[in-house]
Amino acid sequence: MPSSTFQATRLGWSGQSIKTAAISNLKSHHGLGANPEQTALALAQKMNQQLLGQTADVRGVIDSLDLSEQMRDAVPAVMDLTRESKATLDMYGINGGPSDDFGRQCLLARRLSESGVRFVEVSSTGWDHHSGLDKFKSKAETIDKPIAALLADLNQRGLLDETLVLWSGEFGRQPETQVLSGKETLGRDHNASGYTAWLAGGGTKGGLTHGTTDDLGYKTVAGEVHLHDLHATMLHLLGLDHKKLVYRFGGRDFRLTNIYGNVVHDIIA
User: Fold this and answer.
1) CA distance 82 to 95
2) Which of 44, 70, 78, 170 has the maximal Cβ count within 10 Å?
3) Is the pTM of this model over 0.90?
4) Sequence ranges of the domains in the chain
5) DSSP helix/strand/coil, 132
6) Matching PANTHER family, A to Z (predicted)?
7) Alpha helices in the chain (DSSP H)
């Protein structure tokens, strides 16, 4: 199956408010006769079907155009947050305050998941605090309320049990103040040896802390979960055996966890 069949659709860009984000080419362009987009799509697909007999590479294009036609009708409605109640908007912190943008992302994540989108990613940038750690509290205020709202909303709608939520950052952080250019700053460097992520829903145990670091947070001392283990566990929760999820390349089989990965059964409900 061509990789383009499973390619993600991006909404917005880093630094752009999600409020103004849109998917290009989904709006109708009038003045070209009745249903010009549908006519053009039908012609393109007819030509693609003819090419399919010559090369299988065009299959991904055909599938993408079929999907785009479905998205043209469905996506605008899913992205319309005016369909939500004021109570829901307030719960996500969508009120023009510091949590407004990320709140919109989280609410869209719930709406997309509810409409059948299988994988949704939200992001919050600006956490690489090599300096300016005193601004951490105000940064945390942008995401705290929306995350809590997303989990509560999924739960009250009966979606959390079948939706796996992963929250993770780029790195763990060192426990001491960082020195930059010979000057001590209020910030922390990267730390790959003591790194925390959390999972919710999707068959995981609630209220469980797995693993510990040393007293200073430098290094994991118990319950270490390697990245391959995390991938193996997430695939298991999604109903996939990571040892069987393989593809052939260069004469041998590859899988997402390479030759590693153990399912962390202790966190599974």
Assistant:
1) 13
2) 78
3) no
4) 35-75
5) coil
6) BLL7424 PROTEIN (PTHR43737), DUF1501 DOMAIN-CONTAINING PROTEIN (PTHR43737:SF1)
7) 36-52, 59-78, 86-91, 100-114, 136-140, 144-156, 227-237
